[in-house]
Amino acid sequence: MKKRLLLAFSLLVTGAQAQSPDSVTIRKIYNEVLTNSPSYEWLRHLTQQIGPRLSGSEGAQKAVDWTKQLMEQQGFDRVFLQEVMVPHWVRGAKEVAYIQNGKQKITVPIAALGGSVATPTKGIEAQVIEVKSFQELRDLGAGKVKGKIVFYNRPMDPTKLNTFEAYAGAVDQRGNGATEAARLGAVGTIVRSMTTVLDDNPHTGSMRYATGVPLIPSAAISTNGAERLSKMLKDNPGLTFYFKQNCETLPDAKSYNVVGEIKGSEKPDEIIVVGGHLDSWDIGQGAHDDGSGCMQSIEVLRALKALGIKPKRTLRAVMFMNEENGLRGGIGYADYAKKNNENHIAAVESDNGGFTPRGFGIVGTPEQRAKAIAWKPLLAPYGLHEIGAGSGGADIGPLAQLGTVLFGFKPDSQRYFDFHHAGIDRFESVNKRELELGAASMAALVYLLDQHGL
Amino acid sequence: MKKRLLLAFSLLVTGAQAQSPDSVTIRKIYNEVLTNSPSYEWLRHLTQQIGPRLSGSEGAQKAVDWTKQLMEQQGFDRVFLQEVMVPHWVRGAKEVAYIQNGKQKITVPIAALGGSVATPTKGIEAQVIEVKSFQELRDLGAGKVKGKIVFYNRPMDPTKLNTFEAYAGAVDQRGNGATEAARLGAVGTIVRSMTTVLDDNPHTGSMRYATGVPLIPSAAISTNGAERLSKMLKDNPGLTFYFKQNCETLPDAKSYNVVGEIKGSEKPDEIIVVGGHLDSWDIGQGAHDDGSGCMQSIEVLRALKALGIKPKRTLRAVMFMNEENGLRGGIGYADYAKKNNENHIAAVESDNGGFTPRGFGIVGTPEQRAKAIAWKPLLAPYGLHEIGAGSGGADIGPLAQLGTVLFGFKPDSQRYFDFHHAGIDRFESVNKRELELGAASMAALVYLLDQHGL
Fold it and tell me: Where are the transmembrane segments (chains A, B) (predicted)?
């Protein structure tokens, strides 16, 4: 009996602790989002009705128009566009690629990397040299590389618990592979797709050329294609690979960041940003990357408004343009902020997918980090255990120079690279509850930042 | 400069801490599973080649034979069957249901609940009375219920962060709804499916009858169907609902738990169980529920063996039979343990889906819990933050009487009830990395239990 009384008492105490004003409000935020959020239906529209949104494309412009209208409909205090000039790369007709092994011709799925040049109209056919690293390539030397197609085949490390670390450990092949290969006289590069899954989806992504080095075409090959090519090369190192791609870089195009704002009631000059990027690659629907982050950011402001929470500080939902192949929106946003002497105290970005929340990475001083980490007891009941030093987000990165504290929303990373930059990053790959929990987590953090500053 | 040195030093210290023998072994376990695990391909076979495995069915028998063979192939020290008699309920021909609203006839998807009786051959057609709780039903009284079909339509609460709590708050309608309705003279019951998703999949599950109360047929209706029926009832309370189901309870059938064992080298009489249940509902493939838990349990033993880890204590992977509609395997296993005077120090069950790991729930004394909670620093780097009092698992539950400490593997719960007991609980709904991380988490816990006891 005594034990039961004790238990009842300790439950009362826990209950009482849970009644701090912050915890009550956070509970309300989650209830609102999990009950009334339209964010999943917004995402359906953005991904299925508008679709791919590569910078400079018609889809990107439609997304600008639609999100502006959407935020206006929410009754935010101000919705405005920020003009930025963006790179305008187009894929052109679908790529063709095959392995020619004697008389055997095996078609494999590839996708030109963003920023790559086209092949000659008739395509390129050459012998293949497979490497796993730039060092291995350099050790081979020009004698073995000249005239060939370099095939980068180092997989993402499946043992990394955080798949973004595995990505970081492999993506040099995609970003700089063409330049490294061209220095040694290669005529093209084929890069294993950045995913741990074995399937037939090529994953595109950006690549860069260095000045003074020949521009050779570069494409991603599906992981199954990479495995097959590697296996066949072991049997016949003399086989050839053919590919043809039709991409092109057009003159820079005019585009926009889209910004929705709720004015602060006490400190309107202190701004808190929550955002994602509106552009996406062209071969999927940009559902996880980063339609989710955009819809969540608008939902943060919608939910706070619906609850009648009047922020002390000014809150902005920002749809950044051109994260994927230029970052012009992120850079432009920070430039505007600087020019207008705006004081951005904090920025939160969601660009790691619409998955179940795990926490937030923080970029700031140890004191600023400590203040946010002290909120953990308020956030851990919602599955947000991982709050600490980490990365913010590409688009909000340029705000760091202005002293803004950056927060990167950290959802579970296990499924992200299954979809990332591939044709299957579609609406159906996003789970409604997971998307909403992300929005609620971001809203809870924004609420705490607004209440307590940093 | 000084700051950098300090940073370097603190990284060294962290690195040194990470080198405890336990943390090194746990890292090896994760590496082994994430690199070499066949568990996803095993699950493919179990779900796609064998398929549904309801107790007493041909699929269940095939699963017994195949998992026995699979564990024998792994070279475990002993693989054996434990005979249990199981309920043998069969669905029969697919159900038919429609709403008859004047001349309008709208077909809706239903699935008979496990254990339900059939309707008469010509089906049942009756007026409908919608309620959200037993209290509401009782308040209406026999006068309003008699001769009608009771429609239970209280949704799972979407604001519960742990969806299992939301399930627990709604599942009384499925389990006891028929009996409660029959007491007031109802002729059948229709229950809103246990999921927060709005779709067209009915979710089956078990129900019970009380003695002395008429056995009336009971079925689950899809959430979209429930929404539609509810809306139409508001316009026309006099509409009728028709359903026909053809299920039947046959005599109990002979079946088995399947047990694979690695003998302990120091304390062979202390047994640690890791398990899931081999049976599944008949309308899906039982991928998350609970093919995942079974394949993970075998993977725990395979991975430890592959790493050359010789356990001090005896480890058993147990495929329990009949969790879904009888728990005869779980009860039988504990009975055998008692009869044979076996000392089960701990049991770990995975029956919450093959999703990304969050932690473990513990059932034991406060001292035993504290010992396991003290392992958190070893497990948190792998995303296992939620280690504390909780629930173990249905199948291992009966072992509690023998003093066994129970651990329930706790994956993220957000997507579970999208699939649970529905036709879409199929292989494709399981993610390879998430499945493997679950297996590695269970293996890490089993390793710690083996090394340190409780």
Answer: none
B445 CA: distance to closest CA in chain A (Å): 17
* Residue extents of the structural domains in chain B: 25-89+251-452, 92-246
Indicate the CATH number for domain B25-89+251-452: 3.40.630.10
Tokens of A61: 């412009």
pLDDT tens string A126-183: 999 999 999 999 999 999 999 999 999 999 999 999 999 999 999 999 999 999 999 9
CB contact under 8 A, A437 and B431: no
Q: Cβ contacts of residue A300 below 8 Å, gap of 6+?
A: A274, A315, A317, A439, A442, A443, A446
Report d(CA A194, CA A165) in Å as an integer.
12
CATH placement of domain A92-246:
3.50.30.30
Nearest-CA residue of chain A relative to B384?
Answer: A385
For residue range A361-375, list pLDDT tens digits in order: 999 999 999 999 999
Q: Does the active-site annotation cover B323?
A: yes
In whole angstroms, what is the distance from residue B69 CA to residue B61 CA?
12
Beta sheet of B267-277, edge-to-edge order:
B78-90, B248-262, B313-320, B267-277, B343-349, B405-411, B357-363, B386-389
Distance CA B305, CA B312 (A): 13
**Looking at the complex, does the CB of residue A161 fall below 8 Å from at least one CB of chain B?**
yes
Q: Which CATH class is domain A22-89+251-452?
A: alpha beta
Domains A22-89+251-452 and A92-246 share a fold: no
**pTM of the shown model:** 0.95
- Cβ–Cβ pairs < 8 A, chains A and B: 61
Separation between Cα atoms, residue A354 and residue A430, nearest integer Å:
6
* Closest listed residue to residue B186, CA positions, set B159, B219, B150: B150
**Are the beta carbons of A50 and A62 closer than 8 angstroms?**
yes
User: Within a 13 Å sphere around the CA of A445, how many CA atoms are in the beta-carbon half?
Assistant: 36
Q: Tell me the shortest Cα–Cα distance from B448 to chain A, in angstroms.
A: 20
Q: Give me the residue from A31, A385, A431 closest to B159, CB to CB.
A: A31
**CA gap A402, A394 in Å, rounded:** 15
The reply to whether residue B196 touches residue A382, judged by beta carbons under 8 angstroms, is no
